């Protein structure tokens, strides 16, 4: 399991942060029609029940935005990805079709409000990530966005540099159809409530749609780290 550490700068700005990481072997594919039935149903429910002005007040999204502000970043200019997905859906647009793994992760983010990092584990340099704060001038290519100014954003770094922020992941470690080992990071800036349910939902989708195997889970806070091998497609509690 990839080791994930939280920097003091992050835990000071977001003391309630709970990071839940799932690592597993997967078999990715082109976008799955059955998965998209679930996505369309979730989109329709959101359009019926959610107003645009309510999106940034939802606790998982609001807490992420507050962390941005404490770190000096304007969240309306660099929206957390979960917020951007919900805004897109409420405007009447559908999620982008990428591939089954990316579509699945976007569905979890859309449904739960968590900004989620999805990485090809084999592209990560070294066995450790640290969640720190982006620096002025730090080179970072957001997926589909080009160079992204990550100064003041929470950023996961491997041995080579930044790979993930709540706004956008980096091109270097992105998922593609050849991805066989997934690292999925659910960023709970609002604390533990709702996080384990998001993990349960994620595991169910991973097992159903990408044949997840050899899954491991780690829950990290500023004070603790709990590692749990997962022999089945559900949490053991």
Task: Tag the structure with descriptive keywords.
237 residues; alpha+beta; five-stranded antiparallel sheet; 31% helix
Provide a concise account of the structure shown.
The protein has 237 residues and is of the alpha+beta class. The chain is 31% helix and 24% strand.
Characterise the protein shown here:
- With 237 residues, the protein is of the alpha+beta class.
- Helices cover 31% and strands 24% of the residues.
- It has six helices and eleven strands.
- The chain has helices at residues 8-13, 33-49, 59-70, 81-90, 100-112, 195-210, and strands at 3-6, 18-25, 115-120, 128-133, 141-142, 146-147, 154-157, 162-164, 181-188, 213-220, 225-230.
- A five-stranded antiparallel sheet has the order 3-9-2-10-11. A four-stranded mixed sheet has the order 1-4-7-8. A two-stranded antiparallel sheet has the order 5-6.
- Helix 2 (33-49) packs parallel to helix 5, helix 4 (81-90) packs across helix 5 and helix 5 (100-112) packs antiparallel against helix 6 (195-210).
